């Protein structure tokens, strides 16, 4: 208690110098907190992106060596998915896209992402119908020239009128608009709302190809993804003879997992770099404590001459170092929270705060650093010969 | 058995034959309980070195120092701390009060190291301040006091500690003769109460107040006389 009061007195006596001493710790703690908060913001951003794309998918990729013997795998998977695996599968759709200009009367959108999908395209890609009707099984079978517009395309081409029933031209081919999707990604030009979906069976006209080389199977929950993937593996092994082609299966969630794992390891590296700032801050504290010991040599001598034990002297300096670094840590935490909020809002439009665990860890680490780097000066002070200490001015 | 016994003590500063200075050059001395001894000598004679060794602030290079019959050389650092805390009090020319502490806190500080509870520390500190007639300044800072007042605080600190030995190194050196006399009479009072007092000074008139005078020159004891003026040969002098 006594040591605490004396340490606070001494810090208050030299406010400017104490603040400069803390600066290293302040910067270190702030950097750690902000970096970790930013990484978590980046992760949230990535996760949100994948969620918009639609999670819980199995992606099938097909490669044919012998096109003459290619079988219609897509139809088979569609039936298998909807019937045999119907409990777990929410939709099956080819995944094929192309970029084409879209023309409505005199207005042209230069490039628009055209999805060639099945009647279950919307379910597979996380789109929701807003108006009109979606692509139907009949449209696919009949190769109807119909399309559903994403919200950006609908809002841009038809700012004041109802698009349903109107005709747009893709590659010079007229398509009747049968529906529109809700906005799902902010509705800007570079968003996922800048799209049109059409029946995949028009791939000859739009892609100049009759093959379906990629299929998306949407699964209801993440727990079922592996089950569906394994069932499809067994099913496809029979269907696709290795002499004519190859198939591969991928858990769509793994890309998200991978990228969050990547950022996790990145945050460890960044946190490590920021901790170096904390170490440097600790060395700063050690320097100042050494100066303080020199300045207070006489005081140490007086205390020793009246019987102060070594432990008393050590405690006094350790407490002071611990308080310096602890105060630095607290200021750093305040700054870290502030900066995280500001940067999080600016960069990810999220309310980002460093986690309690990281905050507690950074504080503990900063106090520990102060105490560890305070040990040398404190021991040095306590080892002074009383007579030498008293002789100092 | 004497309270304090120095046997052929050397204190050597500097290294190498040429730089070497023998601040104490084979000193032997015995002081009994309850004595009032003045150690007198010119500046550089070795008298302060002797006090530092007697006060366990420093250790002899060679020779033995027995305190209460126990050789100091065998004491651990912790035991020396305890001796400084409980057995010996100091008064210095420069007062050696801690400027950041209040007057009464300065007086009470040694008792903190004796692990005496706060209430008792304060009570004893106040009693000691009253004894040196400076109680009104208890809550002041040492820097707000005159030199004579500060020295009285230092004496109060020694009184409150209750150590059986008081060592004073030029306690009146920075004081005018009137306050110096006051300080000396306080020390005599303590001695009358049973405290062994060792007074280091260069001033013959101050030394004359002591019952016994030990004169030091060039690291040797050259005279050791008692108050009646009869010279006795110094132990080991020659």
Description:
- The complex is a heterodimer of chains A (393) and B (238).
- Chain A is an alpha+beta fold and 393 residues long.
- Chain A has 2 domains: 182 residues, no CATH class; 168 residues, no CATH class.
- Chain A contains 13 helices and 11 strands.
- Chain A has a 6-stranded mixed beta barrel with strand order 3-4-9-6-8-7.
- In chain A, helix 2 packs antiparallel against helix 9 and helix 11 packs antiparallel against helix 12.
- Chain A is elongated.
- Chain A starts with a helix and ends with a helix.
- In chain A, 42% of the residues are buried.
- With 238 residues, chain B is an alpha/beta fold.
- Chain B has a single domain, classed as Rossmann fold, CATH 3.40.50.
- Chain B is 34% helix and 27% strand.
- In chain B, helix 6 runs parallel beside helix 7.
- The longest helix of chain B is centred in the last third of the chain and has 16 residues.
- The two termini of chain B are 25 Å apart.
- The model of chain B has no long low-confidence stretch (mean pLDDT 87).
- Chains A and B meet through helix 1, helix 10 and helix 13 of A and helix 3, strand 6 and helix 4 of B.
Summarize the structure in short.
The complex is a heterodimer of chains A (393) and B (238). Chain A is an alpha+beta fold.
Write the layout of secondary structure elements.
The complex is a heterodimer of chains A (393) and B (238).
Chain A lengths: L1 H12 L1 H39 L3 E8 L8 H11 L5 E6 L1 E9 L2 E11 L3 H5 L3 E4 L4 H6 L3 E4 L1 H7 L9 E4 L2 E9 L13 E5 L3 H5 L6 E6 L2 H18 L5 E7 H44 L1 H9 L4 H39 L7 H27 L3 H6 L2
Parallel strand pairs in A: 4-9, 6-8
Antiparallel strand pairs in A: 1-10, 1-11, 2-10, 3-4, 3-7, 5-8, 6-9, 7-8
Chain B lengths: L3 E10 L2 H4 L1 E11 L4 E5 L6 H8 L7 E6 L2 E2 L5 H10 L1 E5 L10 H11 L4 H14 L15 H15 L3 E5 L7 H16 L3 E6 L2 H4 L4 E6 L2 E7 L4 E2 L6
Parallel strand pairs in B: 3-8, 3-9, 6-7, 7-8
Antiparallel strand pairs in B: 1-2, 1-4, 4-5, 9-10, 10-11
Helix pairs in contact in B: 4-5, 4-6, 5-6, 6-7
């Amino acid at each position: 208690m006594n040591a605490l009061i004396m340490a606070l007195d001494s810090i208050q006596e030299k406010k400017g110098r104490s603040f400069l001493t803390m600066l290293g710790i302040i910067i270190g703690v702030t950097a750690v907190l902000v970096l970790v908060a930013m990484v978590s913001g980046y992760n949230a951003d990535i996760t949100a992106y994948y969620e918009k794309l639609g999670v819980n998918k199995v992606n099938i990729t097909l490669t044919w060596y012998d096109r003459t013997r290619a079988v219609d795998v897509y139809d088979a998977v569609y039936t298998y998915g909807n019937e045999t695996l119907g409990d777990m599968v929410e939709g099956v759709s080819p995944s094929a896209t192309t970029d084409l200009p879209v023309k409505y009367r005199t207005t042209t959108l230069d490039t628009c992402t055209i999805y060639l999908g099945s009647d279950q395209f919307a379910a597979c890609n996380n789109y929701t119908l807003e108006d009109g009707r979606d692509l139907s099984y009949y449209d696919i079978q009949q190769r109807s020239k119909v399309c559903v517009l994403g919200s950006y395309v609908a809002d841009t081409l038809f700012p004041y009128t109802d698009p349903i029933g109107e005709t747009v031209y893709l590659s010079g081919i007229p398509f009747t608009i049968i529906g529109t999707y809700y906005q799902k990604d902010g509705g800007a030009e570079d968003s996922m709302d800048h799209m049109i979906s059409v029946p995949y069976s028009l791939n000859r006209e739009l892609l100049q190809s009759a093959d379906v080389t990629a299929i998306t199977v949407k699964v209801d929950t993440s727990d079922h993804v592996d089950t569906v993937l394994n069932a499809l593996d067994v099913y496809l092994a029979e269907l696709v003879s290795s002499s004519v082609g190859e198939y591969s299966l991928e858990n769509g969630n793994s890309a998200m997992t991978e990228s969050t794992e990547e950022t996790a390891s990145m945050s460890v590296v960044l946190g490590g770099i920021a901790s170096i700032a904390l170490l440097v801050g600790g060395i700063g504290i050690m320097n100042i404590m050494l100066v303080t010991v020199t300045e207070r040599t006489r005081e140490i001598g007086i205390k020793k001459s009246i019987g102060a034990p070594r432990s008393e002297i050590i405690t006094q300096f350790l407490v002071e170092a611990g308080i310096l670094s602890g105060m630095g840590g607290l200021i750093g935490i305040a700054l870290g929270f502030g900066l995280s909020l500001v940067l999080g809002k600016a960069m990810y439009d999220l309310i980002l705060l460093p986690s309690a665990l990281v905050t507690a860890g950074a504080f503990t680490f900063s106090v520990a650093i102060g105490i560890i780097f305070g040990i040398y000066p404190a021991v040095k002070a306590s080892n002074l010969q009383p007579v030498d200490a008293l002789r100092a001015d | 058995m004497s309270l304090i016994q120095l046997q052929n003590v050397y204190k050597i500063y500097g290294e190498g034959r040429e730089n070497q200075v023998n601040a104490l050059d084979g000193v032997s001395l015995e002081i009994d309980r309850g004595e009032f001894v003045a150690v007198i000598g010119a500046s550089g004679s070795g008298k302060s070195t002797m006090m530092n060794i007697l006060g366990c602030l420093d250790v002899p290079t060679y020779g033995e120092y027995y305190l209460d019959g126990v050789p100091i050389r065998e004491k651990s650092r912790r035991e020396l701390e305890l001796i400084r805390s409980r057995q010996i009090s100091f008064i210095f020319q420069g007062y050696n009060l801690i400027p950041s502490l209040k007057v009464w806190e300065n007086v009470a500080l040694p008792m903190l190291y004796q692990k005496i509870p706060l209430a008792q520390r304060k009570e004893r500190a106040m009693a000691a301040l009253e004894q040196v007639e400076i109680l009104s300044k208890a809550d002041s800072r040492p820097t707000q006091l005159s030199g004579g007042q500060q020295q009285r605080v230092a004496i109060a600190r020694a009184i409150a500690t209750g150590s059986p030995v008081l060592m004073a190194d030029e306690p009146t050196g920075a004081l005018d003769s009137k306050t110096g006399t006051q300080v000396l009479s306080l020390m005599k009072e303590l001695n009358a109460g049973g405290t062994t007092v060792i007074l280091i000074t260069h001033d013959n008139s101050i030394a004359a107040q002591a019952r016994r005078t030990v004169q030091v020159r060039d690291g040797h004891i050259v005279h050791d006389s008692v108050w009646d003026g009869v010279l006795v040969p110094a132990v080991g002098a020659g």
